């Protein structure tokens, strides 16, 4: 029997066996009611209908009394009234302390007052939780828990899964309005009655409901924010109204939030560092008479590509101007006809619209064209020259709309004093770019051919402090004419739109039986997920190459030059483009509208109704060239290989028991459970084979792929897993408790990975042929999890905790890249069968992740001062090995040590809080924007990050307050690199953001 099989069987049986042993007479346990605080349920989501209708004054009212136990275990004789942040921290502490499993929580300080303006930003204050940011916006968009990010974490709204049309299973936290959230629970060990489908954590976002605060309540807020580079103030507005009536049997709550964020971000980038062999003749100091790099083993030794190395595929800089608008709306209706019945109907709506204008430049490198190459000890090309390098000035208008709507009905009925029955159903749908939307409109102009330059490239430092320097730039090396419109002509034009939908149907039923010392739960859950993906682009019909070639000044056969001067709207200086980073850039980039550029080219007319100089007319034998269908408009065509439909049905059953007892005089709380999950999946795609490759006559770097007719391809898959868990909490003293938790959890593969066909794009570049394939037979990741923790609650609102955790994870999905031929198609640049870099996913090896979380919260009596501090140290037995150039390399992603410190003052209506967040370098994933190398999927690392945020508020009256916020006070930058530290991929400078606003409640 294998070790893995033994471990799985052991985990299946450990929960009930341990619970029975702990509660047996041999364990000297006398079942009593001691040790459980009556105000907190044993399980995170155990609530009766009566409790659901009980006012939450003690739990959430800012004027609530802090009656938490003093160090000697007794309630303080002098009640201290605390409000705002300190009251929130005490509630969070109470939840953590009394939860049976490992749970951290964040509570609203007041109705309409969440600690941070972004949900993920609040979550990163918790031990073991770190965030990922959107480089273009600087906004936290995702979280990593104990080294597991993205799909490894499940996010719920009031216990329900959320649909997301982005293609994965994780949500973008920047789409969640935080103003009127009631609280968030982060379950690091599973509650089997809620979910076991997250190896990282389950994040449950709780929204307020009318009977949380019976009677009339309302809150409004308004603020303006300013990003230092964008230079103008944009608003955020929110309102919440809640009331109960008809003798407190009916209630309604409604909220609305409009949020706007504008950000101008400077970016320097390398699109990818492909690995391949250099020939000795390419190296600095070579005296070879000719240089023709080849893989032919019979060629002259100086021409054989025998030297391992990496080079930058494309280098450039750009400014991204992002307008982020979000609308959130919520309505909740509750009917409370009797003390034992609560019916809740709610609807959550969100719509985020991202409009991004991008202005930049880019230069393309081909490895076989590089000369005077100097490699460092790792093989990275740190300097070289390339003759005839073209220069592109790019612009883009990107528009992404993500819309989600969820409707749910929940019924809770206290059948007897001991039995509660709950039924919950929800329907949700999410859309990516609904309606008649063009997701991205791109313009690309520049010069090349006889104006191509003998460009120099040089790396001057590591990616966290320097970007590469280019030299001898400009047309034919004339730097003074770098952006001369008279020499610039049209090149490629790319439009593309991703349109996805995700539809979720779910139902959960549970019966809860409560005795004095035991709580039993029995129930089931059904979830059906229908995901549809489709991409439209001008790559599909090859319209992107309609006017490629740069025009007459470059000596190319295609392209239009000069372009009308009215297209140009100025320049953006690249001088001191990213302060604090060394490196040299050209003087500027051009500002022009891609829509106006495309409109100008379309205005030239139908090239088949008249001769249009500069149009890329296909040759007589070029039957694969889609430009035969071009009639002047840059319309998109559906990419058949992108069409994907995935239907996933999961049926789960669960049983759990929470018990109380004693070991000697020490109260013991034990919960065990088991959940079975059966998943059935059907994946349908559209398959086609490449039949030809044609080289562009106007731009020798461009290739066009011809295809066979498409055929539908369908695949099925199914799997069943048993997921047990056990949680034990021992109160050694009134202030010290120990925890032990063991569980099995799983994470399903991303829906976008389940495509049953191989996709080779129609538009390719010389030396960079690529394709990708999905795998509907992927099995879920499976983890056996263990926690051992000690928590010391040494005084009111203060504690110190240490938690050791271990995760043994199997079925890791490896996204490898292999070089292979496809359908025997010939590469016209070599005359040999074309070699494609094919990305695909398979279930791979096992790995162990281990670590420790340390958390310390200290409030200094009634002084108003306090702090929160935590650190997470993680490690794995499968770290990344940069020296492994095999195509099957594997490493655990997302692992990084992290630390957070929040210092605050909160008294007499004045609050100020400083948050310091640090995360060490980590491997974000495999694959880069350009990933066509011979050594598999190249990695992307995120460099160490440290950010300081400052928030403050003042209560002018008991109902009216003003607040302010400064994000990224220290002007932190986000940077990434490839296999080695000097292989810069991206550096984003997203600046600081200032917010000032007011809040009123009544």
From TrEMBL:
SUPFAM superfamilies: Porins. Belongs to the TonB-dependent receptor family. Residues 445-969 form the TonB-dependent receptor-like beta-barrel domain. Residues 96-200 form the TonB-dependent receptor plug domain. Residues 47-70 have a biased composition (Polar residues). It is found in: Cell outer membrane. The keyword Hydrolase does not apply. GO terms for cellular component: cell outer membrane. This is TonB-dependent receptor. Residues 47-76 are annotated as: Disordered. Keywords: Cell outer membrane, Membrane, Receptor, Signal, TonB box. Residues 1-30 form the signal peptide. The lineage of its organism: Bacteria, Pseudomonadati, Pseudomonadota, Alphaproteobacteria, Sphingomonadales.
């Amino acid at each position: 029997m294998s070790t893995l099989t033994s471990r799985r069987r052991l985990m299946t049986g450990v929960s009930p066996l341990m619970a029975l042993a702990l509660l047996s007479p041999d364990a000297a346990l006398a079942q009593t009611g001691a040790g459980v605080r009556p105000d907190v349920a044993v399980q995170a989501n155990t609530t009766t209908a009566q409790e659901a209708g009980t006012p939450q004054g003690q739990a959430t009212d800012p004027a609530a009394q802090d009656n938490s136990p003093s160090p000697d275990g007794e309630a303080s004789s002098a009640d201290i009234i605390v409000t705002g942040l300190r009251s929130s921290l005490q509630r969070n502490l109470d939840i953590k302390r009394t939860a049976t499993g490992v749970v951290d929580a964040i509570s609203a300080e007041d109705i309409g007052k969440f600690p941070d303006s972004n949900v993920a930003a609040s979550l990163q204050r918790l031990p073991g939780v770190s965030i990922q940011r959107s480089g273009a916006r600087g906004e936290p968009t995702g979280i990593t828990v104990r080294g597991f990010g993205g799909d490894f974490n499940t996010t719920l709204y009031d216990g329900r899964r959320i649909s997301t049309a982005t293609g994965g299973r994780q949500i973008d936290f920047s789409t969640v309005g935080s103003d009127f959230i009631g609280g968030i629970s982060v379950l690091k060990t599973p509650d089997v009655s809620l979910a076991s489908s997250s190896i990282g954590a389950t994040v449950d976002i709780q929204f307020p409901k009318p009977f949380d605060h019976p009677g009339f309540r309302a809150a409004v807020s308004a603020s303006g924010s300013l990003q230092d580079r964008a230079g103008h103030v944009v608003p955020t507005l929110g309102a919440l109204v809640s009331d109960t009536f008809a003798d407190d049997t009916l209630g309604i709550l409604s909220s609305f939030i409009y949020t706007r964020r504008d950000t101008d971000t400077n970016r320097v980038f390398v699109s990818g560092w492909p690995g391949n062999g250099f020939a000795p003749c390419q190296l600095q100091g070579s005296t070879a008479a000719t240089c023709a790099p080849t893989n032919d083993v019979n060629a002259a030794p100086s021409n054989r590509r025998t030297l391992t190395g990496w080079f930058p595929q494309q280098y450039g800089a750009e400014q991204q101007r992002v307008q982020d608008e979000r609308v959130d709306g919520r309505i909740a209706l509750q009917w409370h006809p009797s003390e034992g019945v609560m019916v809740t109907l709610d609807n959550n709506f969100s719509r985020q619209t991202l409009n991004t204008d991008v202005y930049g430049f880019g230069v393309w490198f081909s490895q076989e064209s590089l000369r005077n190459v100097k490699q460092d000890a790792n093989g990275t090309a740190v300097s070289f020259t390339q003759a005839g390098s073209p220069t592109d000035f790019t612009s883009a208008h990107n528009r992404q709309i993500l819309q989600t709507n969820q409707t749910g009905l929940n019924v809770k009925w206290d059948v007897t004093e001991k039995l509660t029955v709950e039924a919950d159903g929800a329907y949700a749908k999410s859309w990516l770019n609904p309606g008649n939307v063009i997701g991205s409109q791109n313009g690309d102009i520049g010069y090349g051919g006889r104006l191509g330059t003998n460009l120099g490239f040089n790396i001057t430092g590591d990616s966290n402090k320097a970007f590469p320097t280019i030299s001898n730039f400009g047309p034919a090396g004339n730097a003074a004419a770098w952006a001369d419109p008279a020499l610039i002509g049209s090149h490629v034009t790319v439009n593309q739109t991703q349109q996805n939908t995700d539809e979720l149907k779910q139902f959960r039923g549970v019966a809860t039986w409560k005795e004095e010392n035991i709580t039993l739960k029995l129930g089931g859950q059904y979830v059906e997920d229908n995901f549809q993906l489709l991409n439209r682009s001008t790559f599909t019909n090859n319209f992107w190459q309609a006017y490629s070639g740069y025009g007459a000044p470059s000596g190319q056969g295609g392209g239009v030059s000069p372009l009308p001067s009215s297209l140009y709207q100025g320049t953006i200086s690249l001088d001191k483009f990213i302060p604090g980073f060394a490196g040299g850039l050209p003087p500027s980039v051009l500002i022009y509208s891609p829509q106006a550029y495309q409109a100008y080219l379309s205005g030239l007319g139908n090239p088949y109704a008249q001769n249009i100089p500069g149009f890329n007319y296909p040759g007589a034998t070029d039957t694969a060239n889609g430009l035969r269908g071009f009639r002047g408009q840059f319309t998109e065509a559906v990419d058949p290989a992108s069409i994907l439909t995935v239907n996933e049905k999961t049926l789960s059953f669960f049983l759990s028991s929470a018990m109380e007892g004693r070991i000697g005089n020490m109260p013991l709380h034990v919960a065990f459970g088991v959940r079975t999950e059966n998943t059935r999946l059907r994946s349908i795609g559209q398959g086609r084979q490449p039949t030809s490759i044609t080289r562009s006559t106007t731009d020798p770097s461009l290739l066009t792929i011809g295809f066979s007719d498409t055929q539908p391809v369908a695949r099925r898959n199914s799997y069943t897993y048993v997921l047990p868990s056990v949680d034990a909490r021992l109160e050694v003293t009134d202030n010290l408790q120990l925890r032990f938790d063991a569980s099995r959890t799983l994470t399903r593969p991303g829906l976008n990975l389940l495509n049953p066909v191989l996709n080779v794009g129609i538009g390719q570049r010389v030396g960079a042929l690529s394709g990708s394939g999905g795998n509907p037979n992927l099995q879920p990741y499976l983890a056996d999890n263990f926690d051992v923790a000690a928590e010391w609650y040494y005084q009111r609102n203060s504690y110190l905790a240490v938690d050791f955790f271990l995760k043994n994870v199997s079925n890791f999905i490896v996204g490898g890249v292999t070089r292979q031929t496809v359908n025997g198609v010939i590469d016209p640049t070599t005359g040999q069968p074309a070699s494609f870099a094919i990305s695909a996913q398979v279930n791979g090896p096992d790995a162990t992740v281990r670590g420790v979380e340390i958390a310390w919260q200290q409030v200094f009596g009634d002084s108003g001062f306090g702090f929160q501090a935590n650190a997470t140290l993680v490690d794995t037995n499968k770290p990344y090995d940069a020296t492994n150039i095999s195509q099957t390399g594997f490493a655990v992603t997302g692992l990084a040590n992290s630390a957070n410190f929040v210092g605050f003052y909160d008294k007499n209506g004045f609050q100020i809080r400083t948050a310091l967040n640090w995360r060490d370098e980590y491997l974000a994933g495999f694959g880069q924007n350009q990933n066509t190398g011979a050594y598999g999927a190249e990695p992307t690392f995120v460099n160490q990050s440290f950010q300081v945020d400052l928030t403050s508020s003042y209560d002018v009256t008991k109902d009216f307050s003003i607040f302010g916020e400064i994000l990224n006070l220290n002007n932190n930058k986000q940077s990434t690199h490839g296999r080695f530290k000097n292989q810069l991929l991206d550096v984003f400078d997203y600046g600081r953001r200032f917010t000032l606003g007011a809040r009123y409640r009544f």
